Amino acid sequence: MSDIFFAKHDLSIGVFVVGIAVIMFLMFGAGAIGPLLFLTIETLFGKLTNEEFGILFASSIVIMTLSIVIPNVLIIRGRPRAVKINKINVYFQLICYLLFLLVLEHKQTWIFLCFVIFPLLANWLMSSAKYLTFLAFYETLRKDPIVFRQSLAKRIFK
Q1: Buried b vs exposed e over 24-33: b needs ≥16 C-beta within 10 Å?
Q2: Mean pLDDT across the chain, nearest whole number?
Q3: Contact 54, 113 (CB under 8 A)
Q4: What contacts 149, CB < 8 A, 6 or more positions away?
Q5: Residue 14, φ and ψ in degrees, nearest 5
Q6: Model confidence, pTM
Q7: Strand, coil or helix: 14
């Protein structure tokens, strides 16, 4: 199994850099959605009270954090199907940015709207060969950890 992995994939440090970059781009994109969400709600419904702001802030942080952390933990645990959740997260972020673009008209919001590049970069990296190797690495590691680690050690310490 591990020999098949090394025959199909070129393992390098770039593979792990791409995997971490996808996670970071998802986090940056989701982090900018919070302030934009508050500005949009205030634009549509008026000023928020402290209680409403607190509830909205806490719930948005919990939802966005869980939607990024859980799928990526599953990916690192060897479950590559969790990439679908990351794709859904990217599309959700893009739809939110489109909504913000349509609703918000303030000049200051363009700074936040520049964060749309992060989900776009995450989507682009998720379709790259290095990210697929990142997924295959952890999937192979989960299926047969001892043999894979021995094979990896042989390749590193030749």
Answers
A1: ebbbbbbebb
A2: 86
A3: no
A4: 141
A5: -60, -30
A6: 0.85
A7: helix
